[in-house]
Every structure is written in C-alpha cells, then in structure tokens.
C-alpha cells in the first residue's frame, strides 16, 4: 500500500491549523474551519491512507486521552460554563471555571472533560 504524507498546515490567511478531507477520492484538501480558505493537493501514487479509530471498549477510548499535559495544549477547546464535579476542586471563588473538553467517541458523541484548576478528569453518560 502506498501512503500519502499528510503534513500539518496552517492557513495563510488567518494562521489557524488546516484540516484534511478527501475531495472526490482524487485529491487531499486542506481547509480552514475559521475562514473557509482551502488548499488542494493531488493524490500521490494513486492511494490515500485512511486511519480509523475502531476501538470497541469505551474505557480504552476514554483513557487514551487522559493526560495531565493537555492543559498546555492551546488547540483544545475550553469553556467556562461547566462546573467541575470534584468536591475538592482547587478553583478559588473569584476564578472562572476552566474546563477542556475532548470528543473521545465520535459515533456516540461522548466527551471527556478536564478541570484546569484541579486536574480532574470526568465524563458524562
């Protein structure tokens, strides 16, 4: 099998990371979710490598994202309207909530949550 070398690219207009999709099974298209800019690259050697997350066990899917260093990743979405369920959370009363969320199960729309104050991970069912 031939593999396509997919590179991380950044939008020339807004400098955000570009995402990859396949266009009509012939080209790789890098596109920006923020400004809709796109860059098309022809498929190399007639093949595209597709990586599929096919893990069955829900705990394996969940645990693979549990990493205390995610707080340092500026590309992960953060919200302040979710309250940490940890009863011993270290957030001060005058501080805003800061929770990172990651979709770990795309088929069932399940999310992992991480409190940036007390480093507590949780998920909802």
From TrEMBL:
UniProt GO BP: DNA-templated transcription
Record InterPro entries: Zn_ribbon_RPB9
Ranges of residues in domain DNA-directed RNA polymerase II subunit RPB9-like zinc ribbon: 8-36
SUPFAM superfamilies reported in the protein's UniProt record: Zinc beta-ribbon
Pfam families: Zn_ribbon_RPB9 (PF02150)
Protein name in the entry: DNA-directed RNA polymerase II subunit RPB9-like zinc ribbon domain-containing protein
């Amino acid at each position: 099998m031939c593999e396509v070398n997919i590179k991380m690219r950044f939008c020339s207009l807004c400098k955000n990371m570009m995402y990859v999709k396949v266009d009509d099974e012939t080209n790789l298209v890098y596109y920006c979710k923020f400004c809709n800019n796109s860059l098309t690259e022809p498929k190399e050697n007639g093949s595209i490598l597709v990586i599929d997350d096919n893990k069955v066990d829900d705990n394996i899917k969940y645990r693979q994202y549990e990493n205390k260093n995610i707080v340092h990743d500026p590309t992960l979405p953060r919200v302040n309207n979710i309250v940490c369920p940890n009863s011993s959370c270290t957030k001060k009363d005058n501080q805003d909530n800061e929770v990172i969320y990651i979709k770990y199960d795309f088929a069932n729309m399940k999310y992992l949550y991480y409190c940036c104050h007390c480093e507590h991970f949780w998920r909802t069912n």
